[in-house]
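Need fresh eyes. Consider my entry:
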Amino acid sequence: MAGTSSGIVAGLTAAAVGAVGFLAFQARATVPAGLGGKPSASASAASKAPRDRRNPTALPHGSGTGERVVYSLDDDRVWLVSARDRVQRTFRVRPGNLDPLPGTYWVSSRSNAVTGSDGVPIEHVVRFTTTADGIAIGFSAAVGDGSPVAADPGVKTGGIRESRSDGDAMWLFATIGVPVVVIR
């Protein structure tokens, strides 16, 4: 009888270990790769999105499909795009002195109100990656009169500043897991 109960315990232990392993695999398989802060394999395609020069606020072709935030490094512009590929809002931003690489990321964390790495109080922080040095890159609005504040060139910052009204729109739109497509 002792051999039977130890066999049952061993069988149950093996089943439990297998279940935990399977659940860990499933959890990993459902988390977008970009939440780790590295651009996806589509980086090269996203970096060459052509523009409509007659309409500079038009959504760049080749910037992805479905719900997403599109951020143009060259144009200092953001587009909030619905699941049906309609631009909900577009606006200019003032980037910090650290740019993300072109590619697809996902919103990985948010903070309602904090102090930026440059010492400026900010709100509606939407982060999507970090640099190799561990500096967060994301969108935020400076608290104050609502106008974007220029980055201090002596301080490394990945803050992409937007007006307070644009920050409010970003905060409502860009929840955890929403794709952020960075293009040139």
Strands lie at 68-72, 77-81, 87-92, 103-106, 109-115, 121-130, 136-142, 158-162, 179-183. The domain at 34-183 is CATH 2.40.440.10 (L,D-transpeptidase catalytic domain-like). Confidence is low (pLDDT under 50) at residues 9-36, 41-47. The chain has two domains: 2-30, 34-183.
